[in-house]
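Title: Prediction job returns without error message
Component: structure pipeline
Severity: low
Priority: P3
Assignee: unassigned

Description:
Job completed but the reporter wants confirmation the result is attached to the right record. Sequence as submitted:
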Amino acid sequence: MKKFLPSDNQSFPTHVLEITGEHGPDYPLLQLIDNSFSAREPNNIKTTEANSPRKTEAQHGNVDALIASLKDGWNVTCWPLSLYVDENGNEELFDGRHTLKSVKANKYSSVPVALYNRKITGEELYNNLSKHSVLTLSGLFANATDGTTNAKTHDFVRAIKEVVEKENLPLTKDIVEKLAKITGVYSRYSSKGTISGIINSVLNTKTKSIKVFNTTKEEVEHYIVNNDKFGRNNYSKLDGVANRSKILDKQFTYRYAGDILKWAFAARGKNENLRVICSSKAEHESQIEEERIEIIECMNEIFSHPIKVYRDMIETKFSQLGLTLPVVSIEDLPLEIWAMPQIQGETEAIQLL
Protein backbone atom coordinates (compact mmCIF):
# COMPACT_ATOMS: atom_id res chain seq x y z
CA MET A 1 0.00 0.00 0.00
CA LYS A 2 1.44 3.34 -1.07
CA LYS A 3 1.22 6.17 1.43
CA PHE A 4 2.28 9.79 1.45
CA LEU A 5 2.85 11.88 4.58
CA PRO A 6 3.26 15.61 3.91
CA SER A 7 6.03 17.16 5.97
CA ASP A 8 5.85 20.52 7.78
CA ASN A 9 4.83 23.43 5.54
CA GLN A 10 4.54 21.11 2.54
CA SER A 11 1.32 21.23 0.57
CA PHE A 12 -0.09 17.84 -0.30
CA PRO A 13 1.04 16.94 -3.84
CA THR A 14 -2.31 15.85 -5.22
CA HIS A 15 -0.62 14.47 -8.34
CA VAL A 16 0.55 11.44 -6.31
CA LEU A 17 -3.05 10.30 -5.84
CA GLU A 18 -3.78 7.23 -7.92
CA ILE A 19 -7.46 8.01 -8.36
CA THR A 20 -9.57 10.30 -10.55
CA GLY A 21 -12.90 12.04 -10.15
CA GLU A 22 -14.62 8.99 -11.61
CA HIS A 23 -13.63 6.93 -8.56
CA GLY A 24 -15.53 9.16 -6.14
CA PRO A 25 -19.21 9.35 -5.18
CA ASP A 26 -21.53 10.25 -8.04
CA TYR A 27 -23.53 12.79 -6.05
CA PRO A 28 -27.04 13.38 -7.46
CA LEU A 29 -26.96 17.07 -6.47
CA LEU A 30 -23.24 17.94 -6.72
CA GLN A 31 -20.54 17.89 -9.37
CA LEU A 32 -16.76 17.77 -8.99
CA ILE A 33 -15.21 21.09 -10.02
CA ASP A 34 -12.82 20.71 -12.98
CA ASN A 35 -12.62 16.96 -12.26
CA SER A 36 -9.48 17.53 -10.17
CA PHE A 37 -8.28 17.67 -6.56
CA SER A 38 -6.74 20.41 -4.44
CA ALA A 39 -4.94 20.63 -1.07
CA ARG A 40 -5.97 22.46 2.11
CA GLU A 41 -4.58 22.99 5.59
CA PRO A 42 -6.73 20.94 8.00
CA ASN A 43 -7.10 23.84 10.45
CA ASN A 44 -8.59 25.98 7.67
CA ILE A 45 -11.32 23.49 6.77
CA LYS A 46 -14.77 24.42 8.04
CA THR A 47 -17.26 21.63 8.77
CA THR A 48 -20.82 22.21 7.57
CA GLU A 49 -23.67 22.65 10.03
CA ALA A 50 -25.81 20.51 7.73
CA ASN A 51 -25.70 16.71 7.76
CA SER A 52 -25.70 16.45 11.55
CA PRO A 53 -23.57 13.53 12.80
CA ARG A 54 -25.06 10.05 12.95
CA LYS A 55 -24.79 7.89 16.08
CA THR A 56 -21.89 5.98 14.57
CA GLU A 57 -20.01 9.23 14.05
CA ALA A 58 -20.22 9.92 17.77
CA GLN A 59 -18.29 6.76 18.56
CA HIS A 60 -14.79 7.81 19.54
CA GLY A 61 -13.33 4.43 18.59
CA ASN A 62 -13.88 5.23 14.92
CA VAL A 63 -11.63 8.28 15.23
CA ASP A 64 -8.98 6.32 17.13
CA ALA A 65 -8.82 3.74 14.36
CA LEU A 66 -8.41 6.43 11.71
CA ILE A 67 -5.73 8.24 13.70
CA ALA A 68 -3.75 5.02 13.82
CA SER A 69 -4.33 4.35 10.13
CA LEU A 70 -3.25 7.85 9.04
CA LYS A 71 -0.26 8.06 11.35
CA ASP A 72 2.03 6.67 8.67
CA GLY A 73 0.60 8.71 5.82
CA TRP A 74 -2.27 9.11 3.39
CA ASN A 75 -3.16 6.13 1.23
CA VAL A 76 -2.71 7.42 -2.33
CA THR A 77 -5.78 5.41 -3.44
CA CYS A 78 -7.90 6.98 -0.66
CA TRP A 79 -10.62 9.43 -1.67
CA PRO A 80 -9.95 13.07 -0.61
CA LEU A 81 -12.09 15.03 1.83
CA SER A 82 -15.25 16.39 0.18
CA LEU A 83 -15.78 20.17 0.31
CA TYR A 84 -18.73 22.11 -1.06
CA VAL A 85 -17.92 25.49 -2.66
CA ASP A 86 -20.78 28.02 -2.75
CA GLU A 87 -21.26 30.86 -5.24
CA ASN A 88 -19.14 33.17 -3.07
CA GLY A 89 -16.24 30.73 -2.90
CA ASN A 90 -16.88 29.65 0.70
CA GLU A 91 -15.95 26.03 1.41
CA GLU A 92 -17.60 23.53 3.77
CA LEU A 93 -16.67 19.94 4.56
CA PHE A 94 -19.79 17.79 4.18
CA ASP A 95 -18.24 14.31 4.34
CA GLY A 96 -15.20 13.08 6.29
CA ARG A 97 -15.50 14.52 9.81
CA HIS A 98 -13.59 11.61 11.31
CA THR A 99 -10.83 11.89 8.75
CA LEU A 100 -10.46 15.61 9.42
CA LYS A 101 -10.17 14.98 13.17
CA SER A 102 -7.59 12.29 12.49
CA VAL A 103 -5.32 14.36 10.24
CA LYS A 104 -5.45 17.16 12.79
CA ALA A 105 -4.46 14.71 15.54
CA ASN A 106 -1.55 13.56 13.38
CA LYS A 107 -0.58 17.21 12.72
CA TYR A 108 -0.85 16.97 8.93
CA SER A 109 0.30 20.17 7.27
CA SER A 110 -2.13 19.68 4.39
CA VAL A 111 -4.66 17.19 3.10
CA PRO A 112 -6.13 16.44 -0.35
CA VAL A 113 -9.68 17.69 -0.99
CA ALA A 114 -12.29 17.26 -3.68
CA LEU A 115 -14.22 20.46 -4.44
CA TYR A 116 -17.88 20.36 -5.45
CA ASN A 117 -20.56 22.80 -6.52
CA ARG A 118 -24.27 22.48 -7.32
CA LYS A 119 -25.44 20.30 -10.16
CA ILE A 120 -28.45 21.44 -12.20
CA THR A 121 -30.76 18.46 -12.47
CA GLY A 122 -33.89 17.82 -14.50
CA GLU A 123 -36.01 17.86 -11.34
CA GLU A 124 -37.43 21.17 -10.06
CA LEU A 125 -37.68 19.85 -6.49
CA TYR A 126 -33.94 19.14 -6.39
CA ASN A 127 -32.93 22.42 -8.02
CA ASN A 128 -34.93 24.44 -5.49
CA LEU A 129 -33.40 22.84 -2.38
CA SER A 130 -31.39 25.08 -0.07
CA LYS A 131 -27.65 24.59 0.41
CA HIS A 132 -28.29 23.17 3.88
CA SER A 133 -30.60 20.47 2.50
CA VAL A 134 -28.27 19.67 -0.39
CA LEU A 135 -25.36 19.09 1.99
CA THR A 136 -27.52 17.09 4.40
CA LEU A 137 -28.61 14.75 1.62
CA SER A 138 -25.17 14.59 -0.02
CA GLY A 139 -23.40 13.76 3.23
CA LEU A 140 -25.83 10.91 3.81
CA PHE A 141 -25.45 9.75 0.21
CA ALA A 142 -21.67 9.49 0.67
CA ASN A 143 -22.07 7.27 3.73
CA ALA A 144 -24.86 5.20 2.19
CA THR A 145 -22.81 4.32 -0.89
CA ASP A 146 -19.30 3.85 0.57
CA GLY A 147 -19.71 0.13 1.19
CA THR A 148 -20.00 0.45 4.98
CA THR A 149 -23.06 -0.01 7.19
CA ASN A 150 -22.62 3.29 9.03
CA ALA A 151 -25.83 4.78 7.66
CA LYS A 152 -28.81 3.23 9.50
CA THR A 153 -32.54 3.37 8.77
CA HIS A 154 -33.10 6.08 11.39
CA ASP A 155 -30.47 8.25 9.67
CA PHE A 156 -32.48 8.25 6.44
CA VAL A 157 -35.73 8.97 8.29
CA ARG A 158 -34.15 11.85 10.21
CA ALA A 159 -32.47 13.41 7.16
CA ILE A 160 -35.57 13.29 4.95
CA LYS A 161 -37.78 14.68 7.73
CA GLU A 162 -35.27 17.46 8.33
CA VAL A 163 -35.29 18.45 4.64
CA VAL A 164 -39.10 18.34 4.41
CA GLU A 165 -39.40 20.62 7.45
CA LYS A 166 -36.60 22.98 6.46
CA GLU A 167 -37.91 23.38 2.92
CA ASN A 168 -41.53 23.54 4.14
CA LEU A 169 -42.53 20.82 1.68
CA PRO A 170 -45.86 18.98 1.65
CA LEU A 171 -45.41 15.52 3.11
CA THR A 172 -46.57 13.54 0.09
CA LYS A 173 -45.33 10.11 -0.90
CA ASP A 174 -44.10 11.49 -4.22
CA ILE A 175 -41.87 14.08 -2.54
CA VAL A 176 -40.60 11.66 0.12
CA GLU A 177 -39.71 9.07 -2.52
CA LYS A 178 -37.85 11.67 -4.58
CA LEU A 179 -35.85 12.77 -1.53
CA ALA A 180 -35.16 9.17 -0.54
CA LYS A 181 -33.79 8.51 -4.02
CA ILE A 182 -30.98 11.05 -3.56
CA THR A 183 -29.97 9.83 -0.08
CA GLY A 184 -28.45 6.66 -1.50
CA VAL A 185 -30.96 4.48 0.35
CA TYR A 186 -31.50 2.28 -2.72
CA SER A 187 -27.78 1.49 -2.75
CA ARG A 188 -27.63 0.96 1.00
CA TYR A 189 -30.58 -1.46 1.16
CA SER A 190 -31.73 -4.10 -1.32
CA SER A 191 -34.91 -4.93 0.60
CA LYS A 192 -37.99 -3.14 -0.70
CA GLY A 193 -39.59 -3.69 2.69
CA THR A 194 -36.81 -1.79 4.47
CA ILE A 195 -37.07 1.14 2.05
CA SER A 196 -40.88 1.20 2.31
CA GLY A 197 -40.51 1.21 6.09
CA ILE A 198 -38.25 4.25 5.92
CA ILE A 199 -40.69 6.11 3.64
CA ASN A 200 -43.70 5.22 5.81
CA SER A 201 -41.84 6.35 8.95
CA VAL A 202 -41.26 9.74 7.34
CA LEU A 203 -44.89 10.06 6.23
CA ASN A 204 -46.30 9.20 9.69
CA THR A 205 -49.97 9.65 8.77
CA LYS A 206 -51.04 9.21 12.40
CA THR A 207 -50.35 12.89 13.00
CA LYS A 208 -52.72 15.48 11.51
CA SER A 209 -50.89 17.63 8.98
CA ILE A 210 -50.99 21.43 9.08
CA LYS A 211 -50.31 21.52 5.32
CA VAL A 212 -53.76 20.46 4.14
CA PHE A 213 -56.93 22.53 3.68
CA ASN A 214 -60.38 22.27 2.08
CA THR A 215 -61.02 19.04 4.00
CA THR A 216 -64.11 19.98 6.03
CA LYS A 217 -67.64 19.83 4.64
CA GLU A 218 -67.93 23.61 4.95
CA GLU A 219 -64.64 24.27 3.12
CA VAL A 220 -65.53 21.91 0.29
CA GLU A 221 -68.97 23.50 -0.11
CA HIS A 222 -67.45 26.99 -0.12
CA TYR A 223 -64.96 26.06 -2.84
CA ILE A 224 -67.57 24.49 -5.13
CA VAL A 225 -70.13 27.27 -4.69
CA ASN A 226 -67.54 29.95 -5.43
CA ASN A 227 -66.00 28.30 -8.49
CA ASP A 228 -67.95 28.70 -11.74
CA LYS A 229 -66.17 25.74 -13.33
CA PHE A 230 -67.44 23.14 -10.86
CA GLY A 231 -70.71 22.12 -9.23
CA ARG A 232 -72.53 19.29 -7.48
CA ASN A 233 -75.37 18.30 -9.80
CA ASN A 234 -75.81 21.12 -12.24
CA TYR A 235 -74.20 22.75 -15.29
CA SER A 236 -71.07 24.89 -15.18
CA LYS A 237 -71.65 28.64 -15.29
CA LEU A 238 -68.35 28.90 -17.14
CA ASP A 239 -68.89 26.62 -20.14
CA GLY A 240 -72.16 24.71 -19.63
CA VAL A 241 -70.50 21.35 -18.93
CA ALA A 242 -72.49 18.98 -16.71
CA ASN A 243 -71.07 18.94 -13.17
CA ARG A 244 -70.89 16.33 -10.43
CA SER A 245 -68.83 16.08 -7.22
CA LYS A 246 -67.42 13.17 -5.26
CA ILE A 247 -65.82 13.01 -1.80
CA LEU A 248 -63.12 10.36 -1.98
CA ASP A 249 -62.80 7.72 0.71
CA LYS A 250 -60.26 4.89 0.62
CA GLN A 251 -62.83 2.43 1.98
CA PHE A 252 -65.21 3.03 -0.92
CA THR A 253 -62.86 3.72 -3.85
CA TYR A 254 -64.19 0.88 -6.01
CA ARG A 255 -67.81 1.91 -5.53
CA TYR A 256 -67.10 5.60 -6.15
CA ALA A 257 -65.11 4.77 -9.28
CA GLY A 258 -68.15 2.87 -10.52
CA ASP A 259 -70.38 5.87 -9.74
CA ILE A 260 -68.19 8.17 -11.85
CA LEU A 261 -68.16 5.72 -14.76
CA LYS A 262 -71.96 5.40 -14.53
CA TRP A 263 -72.27 9.20 -14.71
CA ALA A 264 -69.88 9.30 -17.66
CA PHE A 265 -71.84 6.70 -19.67
CA ALA A 266 -75.08 8.56 -18.90
CA ALA A 267 -73.51 11.81 -20.14
CA ARG A 268 -72.33 10.03 -23.30
CA GLY A 269 -75.89 8.83 -23.89
CA LYS A 270 -77.12 12.43 -23.64
CA ASN A 271 -74.27 13.65 -25.87
CA GLU A 272 -73.01 15.80 -22.97
CA ASN A 273 -69.62 16.39 -21.42
CA LEU A 274 -69.16 15.67 -17.73
CA ARG A 275 -66.81 17.28 -15.21
CA VAL A 276 -66.31 15.77 -11.74
CA ILE A 277 -64.62 17.62 -8.86
CA CYS A 278 -63.16 15.30 -6.22
CA SER A 279 -62.18 16.15 -2.66
CA SER A 280 -60.87 14.24 0.33
CA LYS A 281 -61.58 14.30 4.05
CA ALA A 282 -58.11 12.92 4.83
CA GLU A 283 -55.97 14.95 7.23
CA HIS A 284 -52.59 14.08 5.76
CA GLU A 285 -51.26 15.11 2.35
CA SER A 286 -49.91 11.64 1.55
CA GLN A 287 -53.40 10.17 2.06
CA ILE A 288 -54.98 12.79 -0.19
CA GLU A 289 -52.37 12.06 -2.84
CA GLU A 290 -53.01 8.32 -2.53
CA GLU A 291 -56.78 8.69 -2.89
CA ARG A 292 -56.34 10.75 -6.06
CA ILE A 293 -54.17 8.07 -7.62
CA GLU A 294 -56.42 5.20 -6.52
CA ILE A 295 -59.65 6.59 -7.96
CA ILE A 296 -58.15 6.75 -11.45
CA GLU A 297 -56.47 3.35 -11.11
CA CYS A 298 -59.74 1.81 -9.94
CA MET A 299 -61.69 3.32 -12.83
CA ASN A 300 -59.19 1.87 -15.28
CA GLU A 301 -59.45 -1.50 -13.54
CA ILE A 302 -63.25 -1.52 -13.81
CA PHE A 303 -63.10 -0.46 -17.44
CA SER A 304 -60.45 -3.08 -18.26
CA HIS A 305 -62.09 -6.05 -16.50
CA PRO A 306 -65.82 -6.04 -15.59
CA ILE A 307 -66.77 -3.75 -18.47
CA LYS A 308 -64.49 -5.65 -20.85
CA VAL A 309 -66.13 -8.98 -19.92
CA TYR A 310 -69.56 -7.55 -20.67
CA ARG A 311 -68.30 -5.95 -23.86
CA ASP A 312 -66.80 -9.26 -25.07
CA MET A 313 -70.19 -10.94 -24.61
CA ILE A 314 -71.96 -8.25 -26.66
CA GLU A 315 -69.20 -8.28 -29.28
CA THR A 316 -69.74 -12.01 -29.82
CA LYS A 317 -73.44 -11.49 -30.46
CA PHE A 318 -72.72 -8.57 -32.81
CA SER A 319 -70.22 -10.64 -34.78
CA GLN A 320 -72.81 -13.42 -35.23
CA LEU A 321 -74.98 -10.83 -36.95
CA GLY A 322 -72.08 -9.63 -39.07
CA LEU A 323 -71.83 -6.37 -37.15
CA THR A 324 -68.86 -4.72 -35.46
CA LEU A 325 -69.14 -3.07 -32.06
CA PRO A 326 -67.37 0.33 -31.95
CA VAL A 327 -64.29 0.30 -29.74
CA VAL A 328 -64.57 2.59 -26.71
CA SER A 329 -61.78 3.25 -24.19
CA ILE A 330 -61.93 5.21 -20.98
CA GLU A 331 -60.22 8.08 -22.79
CA ASP A 332 -63.14 8.21 -25.24
CA LEU A 333 -65.65 9.01 -22.50
CA PRO A 334 -66.77 12.67 -22.34
CA LEU A 335 -65.26 12.92 -18.88
CA GLU A 336 -62.95 15.21 -16.92
CA ILE A 337 -61.93 14.42 -13.35
CA TRP A 338 -60.40 17.16 -11.20
CA ALA A 339 -59.00 17.21 -7.68
CA MET A 340 -59.82 20.13 -5.43
CA PRO A 341 -56.72 22.03 -4.20
CA GLN A 342 -56.11 20.60 -0.74
CA ILE A 343 -52.32 20.34 -0.30
CA GLN A 344 -50.03 23.24 0.57
CA GLY A 345 -48.77 24.87 -2.62
CA GLU A 346 -51.87 24.01 -4.66
CA THR A 347 -53.80 27.09 -5.75
CA GLU A 348 -55.93 25.62 -8.55
CA ALA A 349 -57.76 22.34 -9.10
CA ILE A 350 -55.59 19.56 -10.56
CA GLN A 351 -56.87 17.55 -13.52
CA LEU A 352 -56.58 13.80 -12.87
CA LEU A 353 -58.20 12.59 -16.09
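Comment from assignee: result matches the submitted record. The longest helix spans residues 285-304.
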